[in-house]
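Milestone M4 deliverable, item 7.
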Amino acid sequence: MQLLDNEEYNYFHRVDLSDEEQKAGTVLSHLNKQLIQNIISRIAVDILRVPTDLDKPLQAEIQRSYLKGQIDAYKYLLDLETYIEENEETSK
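Output delivered:
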């Protein structure tokens, strides 16, 4: 199911999910986890490849920070399932 066309994409669009739907949405298959890990690995290599220009050091740091933000987002997806499970156990 496609939520929005790319042209209509809106960062503030939110879909209401029940607790069960939310939990089911956090479960990633083993293949999904491997794919995300490969993406993280590629981004990490990209960070190492950011050239350092002594004339524009801020530009390189901005690019590295942007890539680190991508890693953080993917890592969040990997960690979300564990976080939900741990919170569910402590609330019982």
